[in-house]
Inverse folding.
């Protein structure tokens, strides 16, 4: 299974749900979901990217009309309308995956990258910029008052504390683990997502996926 398929499976749903499966035990995910965390899939990222060209050309961005496909993520009852941290996977050039956290309380984008040698901070900022610029305006459409009257682009940071893994094919699964770890306990738990734990965590995930779809082993 490709990283894209795996990530969409783990983050699938109606665009308003937390992951169905987790390398962490179910109780920790339940705890994270009650702490104003929201997990979105790759479709949300694609919609943001597709919208940016028109958004960037709009003189009055506060009155920009976002497409209906994006606005459905803001429907009544969707976790994104209440979340302080919003997570999703992000892919660079169909080759490398990172985890992304939009922290509304701190007005910043946190990029959880297991291989920082592939791109400079400038390159990361350029690719994440559409999200950092549009997201405050998108949340305002949901009547979220977490930003100022004239929202500014979210700052972008890529913590160097994240353990590094230069194996190309590991980035997809690693990004999932980093997202889940950060949602539960922040960067401190992310430090535990080292290359040597991937095999064990992959086995745990396989069991959880099987039991969710087939039944208890």
């Amino acid at each position: 299974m490709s990283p894209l398929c795996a990530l969409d499976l783990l983050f699938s749903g109606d665009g308003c749900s937390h992951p169905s499966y987790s390398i962490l035990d179910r109780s920790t995910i339940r705890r994270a979901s009650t702490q104003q965390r929201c997990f979105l899939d790759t479709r949300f990222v694609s919609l943001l990217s597709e919208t940016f060209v028109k958004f960037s050309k709009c003189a009055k961005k506060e009155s920009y009309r976002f497409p209906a496909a994006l606005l459905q993520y803001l429907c009544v009852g969707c976790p994104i309308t209440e979340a302080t941290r919003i997570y999703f996977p992000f892919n660079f050039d169909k080759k490398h995956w990172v985890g992304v956290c939009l922290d509304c309380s701190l007005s910043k984008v946190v990029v959880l990258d297991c291989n920082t040698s592939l791109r400079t901070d400038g390159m990361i900022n350029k690719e994440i910029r559409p999200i950092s610029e549009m997201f405050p305006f998108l949340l305002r459409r949901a009547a979220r008052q977490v930003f100022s009257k004239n929202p500014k682009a979210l700052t972008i940071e890529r913590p160097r504390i994240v353990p590094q893994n230069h194996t190309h094919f590991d980035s997809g699964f690693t990004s999932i683990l980093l997202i889940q770890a950060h949602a539960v306990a922040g960067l401190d738990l992310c430090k535990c997502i080292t290359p040597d734990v991937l095999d064990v965590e992959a086995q745990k995930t396989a069991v959880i996926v099987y039991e969710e779809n087939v039944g208890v082993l």
